[in-house]
Amino acid sequence: MLDLATWSWEPVVAKGGPSARSGHRMAVVRDRLLVFGGFFDNLREVKYYNDLHMFDLKLYKWTKITPQPGALAPSSDPDPDPDATPEP
Asked: I need a labelling partner for 6 at 20 to 30 A (CA). Which of 59, 77, 85, 88 fits?
């Protein structure tokens, strides 16, 4: 967490958050931080995430948001159609 008075970073200790990743999307809505998707690449395998996590900025608590059964969910895969022709 960035302390705006001192411009120094402090670690946030909160269990249950998302795993380490890159390429994710984040948004702040009131007092909550939302983290969606992303990927993990260790040069042996790449894993794409399609999950949503919420961090409460007042309580310092993570919650995994799970869609209801049958609900449509977005994809975090940057190329969902492997047969698509890339643009020049």
From this structure: 59
